Model the fold of this input.
Amino acid sequence: MPLLVVGSVALDSVETPTAKRDDILGGSAVFFSYAASYFTPVKLVSVVGEDWPNEHTELLQQRNIDTSGLEVRAGAETFRWRGKYQPNMNDRDTLEVHLNVFGEFDPVLAEEFRRSKFVFLANGSPIVQAKVLDQVTDAQLTVADTMDLWIREQNDELRALLKRIDGLVLNDSEAKLLTGEENLVLAGHKVREMGPRFVVVKKGEHGAMFFSKYETYVLPAYPTEQVVDPTGAGDSFAGGMMGFLAEQDDFEPVTLKRAMAYGILVASYNVEDFSLDRMQRIERDDIERRMEKYQKMLLF
Ligand code: AMP
Done:
């Protein structure tokens, strides 16, 4: 089942305690698409400027990602983000954000894209996310991501969006910020009471928590020693999760739990190198091998 994603496509500059990379391929929709592509065909909608290297588009196309919705706008510059990780590799500071052409992003979906059954609104303004929802006609499952910037600056718009989506993924500090609740279990349920049927709270190296009216559970992260660059961990988690759900064409509770596990495993690969470098070197079989180890690890 094809999966639609709308979100940022970026050139990132990343500093970790041991290494630094400038202008590498990034953006919420890029990490999401690539991760989801192990499971299902993906339709990507975003905008970049004329400084965008075409080889990045080709890289996405090689993995069955439909980039016909990626607009390359003349006379404009691509979204740029610069981040620096603390020695713990979990906390990071955003040093620079240049929205550039992404600041004027006003997605207009092609007819075929409007009929997508699985829809992911990757990190971006809730106003833009709502515009996407206005256009989709046949969506069975709509899930969104958000971040502290939108919780602070477009709170009313975000709350309005929450009433229209099936699921929300956000990280632990964002769930606390949105609800004013320090207890993460209470915070997760409070977010759910704002509208979505389910909420996934990402906890970085500590895994992810799931909240619905009937279930609350936590899945641990896959323990990897090689954390090179955590950028895109959240997006690749969401990509693995939504990709699996679209592949199964099902979002029953048991499938959602397996989908979360796949999200965790794809993210565990993603953090093992910069940009998409590690994911480029794996296939679905590698994810399945990690799944076997993960299941063994959780059996007691
Ligand atoms: P994550 O590590 O999963 O939180 O995602 C990091 C990615 O999000 C980077 O590749 C950035 O380019 C992208 N990003 C950072 N800030 C924003 C923003 N304000 N809107 C959309 N995408 C962003």
User: Anything to note?
Assistant: The longest strand covers residues 65-73. The radius of gyration is 18 Å.
